[in-house]
Design a protein that fits this description.
The chain is α/β, with parallel strands linked by helices. It is built from twelve helices and eight strands. InterPro entries: Aldolase_TIM, DapA, DapA-like, Schiff_base-form_aldolases_AS, Schiff_base-form_aldolases_CS.
Length: 293
């Protein structure tokens, strides 16, 4: 279920800042048609940090409805408060999600023992599978491979999204966890190398723009055709870079707006639309790869 290319889906918003549900439906259909293997709804790319609980839950619920069983939907349910993460997981469980993605708590910098206690408490509170998410570039706290291995002993903690971009970190983790523990890349720039080393898939920002190419790269890697996977990745590298010129999801929303998949590139404050020079740089990359005319 958690293998292949999962898009870290943006949350569309109107110019007035409300969630744009017609645009959300259009995005979900886009990913169904383009071959994404699944969706992460209201992860950090979906602006989970600035969506109130009620809105967060409703976006996940509607995403599941729009997917209509064609794609598994993983719900972002992380928080820097264990009680809030448990609450979100409890509220999201009945929506039909396939599982949860729970980020390392941010700002409060928990110790490794604190991370173990945090994620075990979340997993204890649900019957659904839980994927850990380590992104120290955003959370500051870094979950070490030994901590992942400890957490992998919990029957409902089934995998990890690793956004360190460090392939040696993947190897260190592989050496400590069970063979069926799911390892997903959360760093588009190194995702092809991650797959070549035995990773099970990606949770991708770039897949918002190029879902077919990301899915095809995963399928080529799974089939052992790493030359084809590398060729597909090479065509996406400039886009990988351009999408992170400004903090995610500023640039993906701008790209989707220019593609006509969003009516507005609106973000929740404190994020704002990209600088003009960065807009032009991203649009140039998109033209070069044939996404824009």
């Amino acid at each position: 279920m958690f293998k292949g290319s999962f898009v870290a889906l943006v949350t569309p918003m109107t110019a007035s800042g409300d969630v744009d549900y017609p645009a959300l439906e259009k995005l979900v259909k886009f990913h169904r048609d383009q071959g994404s293997h699944g969706i992460v709804s209201v992860g950090t790319t979906g602006e989970s940090a600035t969506l109130p609980f009620e809105e967060h839950i409703d976006v996940v619920k509607r995403t599941v409805e729009f997917a209509d069983g064609a794609l598994p939907v993983i719900a972002g349910s992380g928080a820097n408060s264990t009680a809030e993460a448990i609450y979100l997981s409890e509220q999201l469980a009945p929506t039909g999600v396939a599982g949860f993605l729970s980020v390392v708590p941010y700002y409060n910098k928990p110790q490794q023992r604190g991370m173990v206690a945090h994620f075990n408490a979340i997993a204890d509170a649900t019957d659904l599978p839980v994927l850990l998410y380590n992104v120290p570039g955003r959370t500051v706290a870094d979950m070490l491979p030994e901590t992942v291995a400890t957490l992998a002993q919990h029957p409902r903690i089934v995998g990890l999204k690793d956004a360190t971009g460090d392939i040696q970190r993947l190897k260190d983790t592989q050496a400590l966890v069970p063979e069926d523990f799911v390892l997903l890349s959360g760093d588009d720039l190194t995702s092809q190398a991650f797959l070549a080393e035995g990773g099970h898939g990606v949770i991708s920002v770039t897949a918002n723009i190029l879902p077919a190419a990301m899915s095809q790269m995963c399928e080529a890697a799974f089939g052992g055709d790493h030359d084809v996977a590398a060729q597909l990745d090479a065509k996406m590298q400039a886009l990988h870079e351009a999408l992170f010129i400004e903090p995610n999801p500023v640039m993906p929303k701008w790209a989707l707006f220019k593609m006509g998949l969003l009516q507005s590139p609106e973000l929740r404050l404190p994020l704002v639309t990209p600088e003009l020079a960065h807009q032009k740089r991203l649009e140039e990359v998109m033209r070069n790869i044939g996404v824009l005319a």
